[in-house]
Amino acid sequence: MKILQRGLVYDVTTVPDPRRAASFTSLRVLASGTILALFQLGSAKHSLDATLALCRTRDRARTWERIPVEFSSVVDGIPGSLAAGEIVEVRPGRLLLMATWFDRSDRSESVFDAATEALRPSKQLISFSSDEGQSWTGWRELPIRGLHGCAITGPILQWADGSIAFAFESYRDITATDPSIHHAAWLMPSNDGGESFGKPVLVAQDPAHGVYYWDQRLCTGPELGEYIALFWSHDLTSKQDLAVHIARNSVRAPADSMPQPRATRITGQITTPLLLPDGRLLALTVHRQDPACLRLFCSPDRGDTWPSELVVYEHNEKAVLTQGSTGVDYRLYWADMFRWSFGHPAMVQLNEQDVLIAYYAGAPNCMSIHWAILDTRAG
User: pLDDT by residue (tens digit) across 162-203?
Assistant: First the structure.
């Protein structure tokens, strides 16, 4: 595997915008060949003024332009901020955007409340476009009843029959701080292009609630409804991150058949999978401990072993962090998450062997969106 090209999707140092923290990247290849990159843009990560920005390329990532669209962060008259978003082409020419919105009416500087270990109230929003993202419908809410602290976690899955699934996680929010509410990872399927969604399908939750399977990232498997999920896994008892965990299942499987995630040899945090046509499974992972980097792993057996790896980006972290790899203070770890100045990798397939990746990187509160094209062939 090797790096073929690299560049910038959005360079915050060259634009006259006071919002210079770009982060939380997503990618989508459209039927026309256009590639869209969606990301959060604010004066800081999860700042009060955080919104979504959209860029596109029509020449295989060589040049990018920002689409001049503004996404409102006021929902039902309540001021908020937009976190991550994802786009899927539900049918040729019709795009669905799903995003997480946080209530910021109390003007708090953080979406995480350390005192209660809970998130600000959130909503999951939906919008549609029929002109490749040039314009969008107004937001409408996707209600998720019975769950709190919900937030989008990576790409919207799409299978060959057109069915899709929205990936998200749930936790506590400041309106529901009961310690009996535990973290879980979910999918919500839709068979009509996002016009309606079924009940949430549980993807992962530790029965003992001692391990959090954070920030799931999923890709589709070869069968309808099949998925492969990778998890940033954190052990609350030993106060440390574990190896990245993996799970394979189907949204069509019985609810009681959910397998427990198992450990891989990959160390890191957010890890994005992609299943190639030849059956190899890629995993693009953020490694925040020394050496801070992004690494691409390749598995010939869909995640059982990971013999190949490539460092695709090395980072000099300039943020002042308080937590290391062991003895992690949970509340302070959350504070570090808002300081990290690289990560959140996205990955899409360009052809049989090449993939396009995107991620954010820079200095604290001055982070741009980067891209690279990788040749995944062995040798």
Answer: 999 999 999 999 988 888 889 999 999 999 999 999 999 999
pLDDT of the residue at 264: 97
337: phi then psi, degrees, rounded to nearest 5: -55, -35
CA separation for the pair 75, 140 (Å, rounded): 9
C-alpha distances in Å from residue 47, one per residue of 21, 106, 320, 346: 9, 13, 18, 22
Nearest to 205 by CA among 229, 226, 240, 188: 229
Rounded to an integer, what is the distance from CA 377 to the centroid of its chain? 25
- DSSP classification of residue 352: S
Q: At residue 332, what are phi and psi to the nearest 5 degrees?
A: -70, -30
- Measured CA angle at 233 (ends 208, 50), to 5 deg: 115
Tokens of 86: 């994802």
Per-residue confidence (pLDDT) for residue 115, from 0 to 100: 81
Q: Is a pLDDT exceeding 90 seen at residue 102?
A: yes
Give the span between the Cα atoms of 347 and 281, in whole angstroms.
12
* pTM for this entry: 0.96
Q: Which residues pair with 54 in a beta bridge?
A: 38
Is-contact 326 303, C-beta < 8 A?
Answer: no
Rounded Cα–Cα distance for residues 73 and 50 (Å):
8
* Residue 331, helix vs strand vs coil: helix
Sign, Cα dihedral of 195, 201, 204, 205: positive
Q: What is the pLDDT of residues 337-379, one digit of tens each?
A: 889 999 999 999 999 899 999 999 999 889 999 999 999 987 5
Domains recognised in the chain with CATH numbers: 2-375 (2.120.10.10)
Tell me if 153 sits within 8 A of 223, measured CB to CB.
Answer: no
Say yes or no to pLDDT of 284 above 70.
yes
Distance (Å, whole) CA 288 – CA 269: 7
List, as one string, the DSSP characters of 111-161: SEETTTTEEPPEEEEEEEESSTTSS-PPPEEE--TT-EEEEE-SPPEE-TT
Q: Which residue has the tokens 């308080």?
A: 322
